[in-house]
Design brief:
This protein has ten helices and 32 strands. The protein is an alpha+beta fold. The chain has six domains: about 25 residues, no CATH class; about 140 residues; about 70 residues, no CATH class; about 160 residues, Jelly Rolls (Sandwich), CATH 2.60.120; about 190 residues, Jelly Rolls (Sandwich), CATH 2.60.120; about 45 residues, no CATH class. The strands form five sheets. The protein has an eight-stranded antiparallel β-sheet, with no helix packed on it. An eight-stranded antiparallel β-sheet has the order 16-15-14-9-18-20-19-21, with no helix packed on it. A hairpin with a 5-residue loop joins strand 19 and strand 20. Helix 2 runs antiparallel to helix 3. The radius of gyration is 51 Å and the shape is flat. The C terminus is likely disordered.
């Protein structure tokens, strides 16, 4: 039978082999089959692709094998060389210690032999003396105890001469001092111990002995360490002496200030306070201090002649007379007490003939007012009602609800006394709390005051039908009802507050300035609460009162300060001209609740001025401000809530020490900026291997330079050791 030609390929999974046409019909009729040559070419192409991939994989594997073998040999060789270097360095260290020990022993042996020779000679001399003297004394004793006169006289002369020679002998003279420190090896042992300890603590690196004019050498000298410093160079001596005299001079200038005006020629200039356009500024009696809040415990004036002033309160709209027996009834509600701080005053009320030029009623005695205030006694909710003479007229305890209601009647009696009564809910039951002296002067008006809203919520209501509050006397941050019968420190519905007429500012004149002038101001911001507290404006008297032409110098407000962490503080901010001619905002931290100085230097001839505050130095050039009229410094406050105290200083307060500080301030800031830049760049660069390579080359150069020195200071890490430590331990060298 003729064999059929295989023309097809059965691609079924169970077959996968070439078949003929008969087989396709008979046994593979339900299988998938393809032409044999087509399948052959396809499978041959796929197999060739796999073959090439496998062959390339073998080639890469051989290359990696070669790399592994080379790396294995390199690491083994590097480790062997490292071990050899380590052993060599260890042997060198051991050899140095042995040589040090041998040298010390040789030096000590010479000294020891000399001392022992002297001691042996002294010993022999003493033994000879003792033997001869003992024998002579024995013979002399026999002669002295014997009775033979002839025998005694025959030997007496010889024995006496011998005994006299023994007596005059200096054999019993004290021994010469023996230098034990040269033979007990204590100093040499201590020196070697210190060097070994330093080598261990420094990782094997021992530095050269410092000069006494370096900080390390000076520290060792002051603490009496035995390490002998190297001789200082002339340049080091010059720098050290210059720094020492400069420091000494600065200390003297700080302890004994020398006014700037004593050294440089300046005008006899001074500043003066202008009367404010608002009724909210307070002035000390000597007109040297001004504030937007009343001062404590000093005599002051807190209003203009056209207005009445009461801090955190308001006056009644009518006056009262003694002869009519008039009275005013007030109901006071206190609630939501935030804290029971001893000494906290919640409200005040009383009778006054005019403005109340003080922050609290309790103070220096006066016959112009009389009143009472409710004061927290302790944290146990106890309170007391105290009169202006300091006497407690009533005391009690607040409820656990942190609120209370009080009703008082202030009675003006025909006998010119004032009586305070407490009224209960019926307003008919009365209890006399206080009866005291009269208030001089006419007219007499009632006044009520409240505390800050962040301490408690206080509302005061006048119960008389014919009496109300005078809204024109209402202090800002205090609110009044539409019928003017109630005031509160919290803005309730339909309540309104007092509007400040114009801005709250204070003008200060810079007087008697012809050529060069110095003005000094001190300011303090007490417990600020708002974002912006005040601004400082420079203007001229010819532009007043509107000051339509002025220059804003700086502002004081809240800022972010970055130290270890970023925190909120208060800063002076100002626009300063940079070296490129552009302006940028510069800030410097000025802490609240502390007095700070503002120093103004005016060059009238050149129409320039310099403002110095904190670590800020601002120079201003403006011809309009410094023409013929008087320059004006305006302190513009943003609210009465933040207290700003201003004090006029004396030009002598600007001393040479302060002047030098501001002269050197640009240099310090320049160095600080560039030092930070250099350190930052160094830290960034040192994260790359180039920095390590550079460091290794420097160390290698230093090592070669000191290789001939016979000292343990030569024990510096080699470049290979540095590199190996970096790789193994992951050290970062900066």
């Amino acid at each position: 039978m003729k064999k059929n030609e295989l023309k097809y390929f059965c691609s079924a999974k169970s077959c996968g082999k070439p078949v003929c046409a008969n087989c396709v019909v008979e046994g593979h009729n339900d299988h998938e089959y393809k032409p044999l040559k087509e399948e052959y070419e396809k499978r041959k192409k796929y197999m060739r692709s796999s073959y090439q991939a496998a062959h390339e994989k073998i080639t890469r594997a051989k290359k990696i094998l070669e790399t592994v073998e080379n790396e294995y040999a390199s690491i083994s060789d590097s480790n062997s060389k490292g071990r050899e270097n380590l052993t060599a360095e260890a042997d060198r260290g051991v050899q140095y210690i042995r040589e040090y020990e041998n040298n010390v022993n040789l030096e000590t042996n010479e000294i020891l032999q000399n001392i022992l020779s002297r001691l042996a000679k002294k010993k022999e001399q003493l033994q000879c003396f003792i033997e001869n003297a003992t024998e002579c004394c024995g013979i002399s004793e026999e002669a002295l105890t014997g009775s033979d006169v002839i025998a005694f006289l025959s030997v007496e002369k010889t024995l006496t001469e011998k005994l006299n020679s023994f007596e005059k002998s200096e054999v019993d003279a004290p021994l010469d001092p023996i230098p034990k420190e040269d033979i007990d090896l204590q100093s040499s042992t201590t020196e070697l111990e210190e060097r070994i300890n330093k080598m261990i603590s420094d990782g094997g690196e021992v530095s050269k002995k410092p000069s006494i004019f370096s900080y390390k050498g000076l520290w060792n000298f002051l603490w009496g360490r035995n390490e002998k410093p190297e001789r200082a160079s002339c340049f080091q001596v010059f720098l050290s002496m210059a720094a020492l005299f400069s420091l000494y001079g600065l200390i003297l200038l700080k302890l004994h200030p020398i006014p700037y005006s004593r050294i440089f020629e300046t005008d006899d200039s001074y500043s003066a306070i202008l009367n404010s356009q608002t009724s909210l500024m307070c002035y000390s009696a000597d007109r040297r201090m001004v504030s937007n809040n009343p001062f404590e415990n000093i005599r002051q004036i807190c209003c203009t002649e056209q207005s009445s002033y009461v801090y955190k309160g308001a006056f009644t709209n009518r006056t009262f007379l003694y002869k009519k027996g008039e009275s005013v009834i007030v109901q006071i509600q206190v609630r939501d007490i935030k804290r029971y701080l001893p000494g906290l005053i919640l409200f005040e009320f009383g009778i006054s003939k005019g403005s109340i030029n003080r922050k609290n009623l309790l103070g220096f005695p006066t016959q112009n007012l009389y009143g009472w205030f409710l004061k927290i006694i302790n944290i146990n909710r106890e309170f007391a009602l105290i009169n202006t003479e300091g006497q407690i007229v009533y005391s009690n305890i607040f409820s656990v609800l942190d609120k209370g209601t009080f009703t008082f009647s202030i009675q003006l009696n025909p006998n010119k006394t004032i009586t305070l009564k407490s009224l209960y809910e019926s307003l008919k039951t009365k209890k006399v709390l206080d009866e005291t002296r009269s208030v001089k002067g006419i007219p007499k008006r009632g006044f009520m005051k409240v505390c800050d809203s962040h301490d408690a919520h206080v509302t005061i209501k006048i119960m008389n039908n014919s009496v109300a509050f005078n809204k024109s006397t209402l202090y800002p941050d205090v609110y009044i009802s539409p019928n003017n019968k109630t005031i509160s420190n919290t803005k309730l519905s339909s309540f309104s507050g007092s509007e400040i007429e114009g801005s709250l500012y204070q003008d200060i004149m810079l007087l008697n300035c012809r050529s060069e002038c110095i003005y000094v101001f001190n300011f303090r911001v007490n417990s600020p609460k708002n974002m912006l507290i005040f601004s400082l404006v420079l203007t001229n008297s010819k532009f007043l009162p509107t000051a339509y032409y002025n220059v804003t110098l700086l502002s004081y407000g809240q800022c972010s300060v970055s130290k270890v962490v970023t925190s909120q503080s208060y800063c002076i901010s100002a626009y300063k001209k940079t070296h490129s001619g552009l302006y940028s905002i510069s800030t410097v931290e000025i802490l609240p609740d502390e007095w700070h100085s503002l120093i103004i230097t005016v060059q009238r001839k050149y129409q320039t001025t310099t403002f110095r505050v904190g670590a800020m130095d601002i120079e201003l050039q403006n011809g309009f401000i410094f023409e013929k009229e008087t320059p004006i410094l305006r302190w513009a406050m943003q609210s009465t809530e933040d207290v700003v105290d201003i004090r006029l200083g004396n030009s002598d307060e600007f001393d040479i020490y302060t002047w030098l500080f501001y002269k050197m301030l640009p240099m310090f800031l320049f160095i600080q900026r560039h030092v930070i830049l250099v350190i930052s760049i160094t830290l960034v660069v040192c994260y790359h291997d180039k920095c390590y390579q550079l460091l290794i080359e420097i160390i290698q150069y230093v090592k070669n330079d000191y290789v001939h020195q016979n000292s343990i200071a030569d024990n510096i890490f080699t470049a290979e050791q540095i590199e190996r430590r970096r790789r193994v331990k992951g050290l970062r060298i900066h």
